[in-house]
Amino acid sequence: MPELMPSKKTLPVGAELDDGGLWSQILNRPQGNGRRRALFLDRDGVIVEDTNYLHRPGDVRVIDGAAEVIAKANHLGIAVIVITNQAGIARGIYGWDAFIEVQEKIIDELDGGGAFINAVFACPYHGDGKPPYDQDDHPWRKPNPGMLLAAAERMALDLGDSWVIGDRAGDLEAARTAGVPGGLHVLTGHGEDRGERDAALALSRDGFQTLTAASIAEALEILPMFTENEK
Hints:
The protein is an alpha/beta fold. The protein is globular, with a radius of gyration of 16 Å. The protein has one domain: HAD superfamily/HAD-like (Rossmann fold). It has helices at residues 66-76, 87-90, 96-112, 146-155, 169-178, 196-202, 219-222, 224-227, and strands at residues 15-17, 23-26, 38-41, 79-85, 119-123, 163-166, 182-186, 209-213. The longest helix has 17 residues, at 96-112.
């Protein structure tokens, strides 16, 4: 089984791995006073192609349009927060060192496209995982809202003026529970899995709005945080 906890000397800038094995990395804090809106993004299947437990930097493929969407959010002062379940760590398929290498590759690829992410939050827990990560309903594991709530607290984010993009209904459910008013469900990654889109659309009630698209690339024409600035 891969080493669970990397040496603190190997952690990249801005990264923390707490005693519970929860990952947070603050890369670039939004500037200015007051709470800022955010664009929450699932990682695998939304920003990069889902290769079934992505853990090799050489397998990183940024999805067409992802860098452009993130760069637009950067330009508008919208915080871009990655929220990712990492069951592969719980299952012992790879460890945090591999996660770090993949993350650094993603950051480099986005940088080449003129885009940057403000923070990354990752939860390794899964019900079928190995100790100490063998917990199914961890507060940080989507569809629970823990990662979004932690990001909002640490980065002064306005959840009520934010959006999420995900390929699973659980991404949108986590946002809805956290108080985010809407989400974009995409067909990349697991988005076309049986029942995912229907489950995502079923969340569109009680003040929460579900939008749909083929991929993240369409967000620039669909999400209010982008289109309202074109009026």
